[in-house]
Design goal:
heterodimer, A: 85% helix, B: mainly alpha, 5 helices
Chain lengths: 220, 128
């Protein structure tokens, strides 16, 4: 146990340095654009722009950290939160890998599998994006064709359908309450679809409450 | 100038993850570890509930357009189609002992669902 604790401390140490380096590189991109084009926007323009996106982006970002860090583990979190695309890629990828390896999130084994899954996912994604950029002119017509549009419009339903089969069927007693609540909520207030990220902790709180109740009653 | 502003706004908009994980990530993990060390079974259920809460929000979102009429049901039909493919994969794994399919069931179902969304949309548009 001590060894695992030491390893986690080491992961945090390395992760913080890498995150700091990544953060600097991230800021270097707009800074480089400003330097190259000699176009430094007034701070008020940036603040006005941020005012439009920050309330939702920063709230969802904070919620994602609180929700996904326990699932992804230390190494997976550092990798996943830097490379991004958590909901539709990194989290399903890590959970599917843990499911296949028959290990649980939040355990030593889960930590290893999750980190490997997210690392491989990040590498593959980077390679595919690089290929996409290189071949953009050739594939653009294909990607933007109206015939394929429904496929790209339905990525999330196509992803969460099978995930539901795997996880909801195994834990239907816990899943029932948050699932019914969310379906009713979205049917009654469709405009909430744009801020689904904010509702993730609401769903988690209901699921945890239901799980606790069922656990206390000895039904799970 | 406008392009540079957009670049700054986009960059600053995505910083919470890169800032919060190094600052509070360890505290969150320690909290989860504490729950697990106190009661292993509840710790496991807690993690399961956390994930089910997330998945519930996204599954609920699929129903957000149902009030728009038959076309609004397309995401639900796609979700059902991909879920059905997952079930078929599970049947193959169990009955035909295709162990390898376990690893590929999720991508097969997802891509299958996306592919089926095209005829589903065509059919719904023809009816509606």
């Amino acid at each position: 146990m001590r060894k695992y604790g030491d390893f986690r401390d080491y992961e945090h140490f390395v992760g913080r340095w890498w995150m700091l380096t990544g953060f600097a590189l991230l800021l270097a991109v707009p800074a480089a654009i400003c330097v190259v084009y000699d176009a430094w926007p007034p701070v008020t323009w940036v603040l006005e722009g941020l005012l439009g996106v920050a309330p939702i982006y920063w709230t969802v970002g904070t919620i994602e950290v609180l929700t996904y860090v326990p699932m992804l583990g230390t190494g997976g979190s550092y990798l996943g939160f830097f490379t991004g695309n958590l909901t539709s890629l990194k989290v399903p990828c890590a959970l599917n890998a843990m499911q296949s390896a028959k290990v649980e999130p939040g355990t030593e084994e889960g930590e290893v599998i999750s980190t490997i899954a997210i690392a491989v996912s990040s590498l593959v994604t980077t390679a595919i994006i690089a290929l996409g950029v290189l071949m953009l002119s050739q594939i653009r017509g294909f990607i933007e064709s109206p015939e394929l549009q429904p496929a790209f419009d339905n990525i999330l339903p196509a992803l969460f359908g099978p995930l539901a089969v795997v996880y909801v069927s195994k834990n239907w007693k816990i899943a029932a309450a948050p699932l019914v609540f969310m379906v009713v909520l979205f049917v009654c207030v469709p405009s909430l679809a744009g801020s689904v990220g904010i509702l993730v902790p609401v769903g988690a709180a209901i699921a945890i409450g239901a799980a606790r109740l069922l656990y206390k009653k000895g039904w799970v | 100038m406008v392009f540079a502003t957009i670049a700054w706004v986009m960059t600053l908009g995505i910083i919470p993850g890169t800032v919060l994980v190094p600052t509070i990530g360890k505290k969150i993990e320690n909290g989860v570890m504490r729950i697990r060390s106190r009661d292993e079974k509840w710790g496991s259920l807690f993690m399961t509930a956390l994930f089910l809460g997330m998945i519930s929000a996204f599954l609920g979102m699929v129903f957000a357009t149902v009030s728009e009429g038959l076309r609004g049901w397309i995401p639900c039909f796609v979700m059902l189609a991909s879920a059905l493919i997952m079930c078929v994969c599970a049947v193959f794994v169990r009955l035909l002992k295709w162990k390898w399919m376990e690893d590929y069931a999720l991508p097969i179902s997802m891509l299958g669902g996306m592919a089926l969304s095209i005829p589903i949309t065509d059919i719904v548009n023809a009816i509606a």
